[in-house]
Specification:
7 helices, NADH Oxidase, five-stranded antiparallel β-sheet, about 190 residues, single chain, 5 strands
């Protein structure tokens, strides 16, 4: 008896990230977002630790974060151009919805930190897949502020946490396009016969 699912295989083969500048309103409804988040959380999670959490940026909260990022840049570089400051203000408004995936990986007596970090990465990918399955475009980004602890209070990131990424979700303004994929012969090593 086979559980082969051709629809899922075709979906995965056609999945594309959507460039953030090609995402527009509308974004997911609250009900759709609840579905996306529940699906994102269905990942391998050794020890059932849920070593990640989600921060949803919607509405005016996106502008508040952008204003804060712009202020950080200006404080560090008072000569920053208005173009650069405008870019920072727009970071979270380029898509109608942004979800931060925050890694809470920590030393555990049985579960390696690396496995916990990979679980957070899996939630990012599942979130992109779930958004795509609901008909939305999505992209997973981790720009400078994901690594700059000065930005963490703006982003809701607490001490000892890290940003796994920000998932930008919206309606595609252009059809998805294919990009060059890895040469499988260059990345697969065979040991034994299948």
């Amino acid at each position: 008896m086979s559980d082969r699912n051709e629809a899922v295989i075709a979906f995965l083969a056609a999945r594309r990230s959507t460039p953030v500048l090609q995402l527009a309103a509308p974004g997911p409804s609250r009900e759709e977002l609840d579905t996306i988040l529940k699906l994102a959380a269905r990942v391998p999670d050794h020890g059932k630790l849920a070593p990640w959490r989600f921060v949803v940026f919607a509405g005016a909260a996106r502008e508040e974060v952008g204003n804060g990022l712009s202020a950080l840049v200006q404080a560090e570089d008072p000569a920053a151009s208005e173009e650069r400051l405008a870019l920072e203000r727009s970071r979270f408004t380029r898509a109608p919805l942004v979800v931060g995936v925050i890694s809470r990986a920590a030393v555990h007596p049985k579960i390696p930190v690396w496995e916990q970090v990979m679980s957070a990465g899996a939630t990012c990918y599942n979130m992109v897949l779930a958004a795509n399955a609901l008909g939305y475009g999505a992209t997973w980004l981790s720009e400078w502020y994901a690594f700059d602890e000065r930005a963490f209070p703006l982003l809701g990131v607490e001490a000892e946490e890290k940003v796994a990424g920000f998932i930008h979700i919206g309606t595609r303004t252009e059809p998805p396009f294919e990009r060059v994929r890895p040469d499988m012969d260059a990345i697969v090593t065979w040991r034994g016969e299948v």
